[in-house]
Design brief:
Two copies of one chain form a homodimer.
Chain A lengths: L5 E3 L21 H14 L12 E5 L2 E10 L5 E2 L2 E2 H15 L2 E13 L4 H18 L2 E10 L7 E11 L14 E5 L5 H11 L15 H10 L5 E3 L5 H13 L2 E5 L7 H10 L13 E5 L3 H9 L8 E7 L6 E4 L5 E3 L13
């Protein structure tokens, strides 16, 4: 096979009943995309939602604010590197940062299953507090519901957030343009593998830790230096490949990435090989993708690498005009491969 | 017994394990209060949360914004008069209104149980849209998670909201003062009874309908006419008695109410008698309590009654300095009775 030939993984949409929600609808892949488009966007059609952002940006008086929401159903609640509490704070802080906003305020909504341990709840709430302090945000409003035993799963947490969008920033998938470079802030797949290992009691030689972390301070600095960033996105559910697919579709461009430039820790890679996962599709919770004009990429990389949670950043690829909607991987072997959006579910309930 | 003697219903805190969450912790009563105080407020201590409001109010540039969150776990999802969708929109719109804010934007976070009907999801999302249009708010950001069958209960919805607080408005339980009057916007207990009847397949001679409705337009007009409103609160979980107890504690005052002035529809009253519920403790979803200086009460009542969802409003009582923290009912029989905050759960999962 010639190295410039593109081969695709065959990813047929699984034959699921159209009438019932499946786990795949929560995967961040094709079924989630369909559910959102056919049910939610169909009804809630408005300019904010249609921006296909990690959050919505609106004008309040003289300011631009970002507003985002995320519900966390991770199982198990505690995993190496974190728990549902810091995950819920970091996740929403990151979603605000991906809108180009400085995170300010969070809400917290708890659904607790009857019989859940108050001690565990205390630990989780304590982690939320610590994460909030670390991010400089305050949790200023909340709600608690309790459901009967067997009608929930220990604890679900919704965090919604408000942030202040910095002046002169315009983050939108619509702005992606051929010639843009793609920066990935660090090594991938840590979170998904850490959660799965904890859930299934898998013991790898080296324990994999979740990368859950807030990256708002990196973004804050980055946007001061490179105001023309086109897109920021955290590759959570669906991983880097899922996120890039969404962006290629929204921006009507193709995205080329180099496999050799995408870092995967050795222990994570081994785990992925054993479990049969492609790390490109595994969730991250402390990484981001930045797409910006090629001319600014080196400067941006320097800024990102100056931070602890960005010191493994790399320019992993670029944006092109041909084959709009496609994400194409230059493999280690010198071949090219289409990275499809996953249709079903690879790893349920990792966030 | 002399008519001015006060008798209390004995309401001991039930002997529950300190270490496990019980349904009572979600009741809106004493256990909820303890949970919030001992676990959430202990960690998330800040001026916004400590205001003990239905939402938080913060300054954004030149504007005052309100931010609130509510998770809906009502069972069943559909009940006479509404469903979880319009309930989730109206509920958060009302919470914003209770902060003296004009509701603007909502987020929607869905936790869907695997196997849930897409048709039902469509109906619910359609109701959310209709309720949002009716309230003049847009749902601008969202999130969807799917959990395995048996790990949720069909559908839970979180809505968070942002609203613009009108100029010159200062709503806070701390402002309650002796001499204030208490207005209740209509008849009580419809929602809780409607949901319970639907859940348990109870057939009353006259079907009870939920009162789910948005009251933001009443509040909007009320605050234009009576700027000195001290408190607004919607008596949802825990009902009117639960809400007044919270307010009496926060404001360190006593609240006296006249039983004869609290309206209960005949069919609702019959249902409460059959089921052994005190309507004062049953949830409402389209009513509010307004506490304001006595001198403004008649004018406020006129405004509230001019609206469809306020035409049954009454001044039901007043605020006094004696016995701070107490809520006292002047009964139909001419006696006085302390209305305690419920310790356990009267009706789980009504919102």
């Amino acid at each position: 096979m010639a190295s410039d030939e593109i081969t695709g993984i065959s990813c047929p949409v699984p034959q699921v009943s159209n009438e019932k929600i499946t786990l795949g609808h929560g995967s961040g892949g094709l079924l989630t995309h369909e559910l959102i488009t056919k049910i939610f966007l169909k009804e809630f059609d408005n300019d904010y939602l249609n921006m296909s952002h990690d959050g919505a940006v609106f004008i309040s008086g003289t300011q631009k604010l970002a507003f985002t929401t995320d519900t966390f159903v991770v199982n198990p609640l505690f995993f190496p590197g974190g728990n549902i509490g810091d995950l819920a704070v970091n996740g929403t802080v990151n979603d605000l940062a991906m809108c180009g906003a400085v995170p300010m305020f969070l809400s917290a909504g708890f659904i607790i299953e009857e019989g859940f341990s108050q001690e565990d709840l205390k630990k989780i709430v304590h982690s939320m507090k610590a994460a909030a302090v670390n991010c400089g945000v305050s949790i200023i409003t909340g709600d608690t519901k309790v459901v009967e035993k067997g009608k929930g799963d220990k604890l679900f947490i919704n965090t919604s957030g408000i942030g202040l969008v910095q002046d002169g920033i315009d983050i939108s998938p619509k702005r992606i343009a051929p010639g843009d470079k793609i920066i990935l802030s660090g090594s991938i797949a840590d979170h998904g593998i850490a959660v799965l290992a904890a859930r299934e009691n898998l013991n790898f030689r080296t324990e994999v830790h979740s990368d859950t972390a807030a990256v708002h301070d990196i973004i804050n600095k980055l946007l001061q230096v490179c105001k023309d960033v086109h897109v920021l996105r955290d590759p959570t559910r669906g991983g880097v490949a899922g996120t890039l697919n969404e962006l290629a579709r929204s921006g009507q461009v193709s995205i080329f990435i180099d496999e050799v430039r995408v870092k995967v820790k050795e222990e994570v890679n081994s785990a992925c090989e054993i479990l049969g996962f492609d790390p490109l599709y595994v969730a991250n919770e402390g990484k981001f993708i930045c797409i910006l004009p090629g001319s600014e990429a080196e400067e941006a990389l320097k800024v990102i690498r100056s931070f602890k949670y960005g010191n493994d950043a790399e320019i992993i690829g670029d944006v092109r005009a041909e084959n709009p909607g496609r994400v194409i991987l230059h493999t280690r072997l010198g071949t090219k491969r289409v990275l499809e959006m996953l249709s079903g579910d690879q790893l349920p309930r990792i966030c």
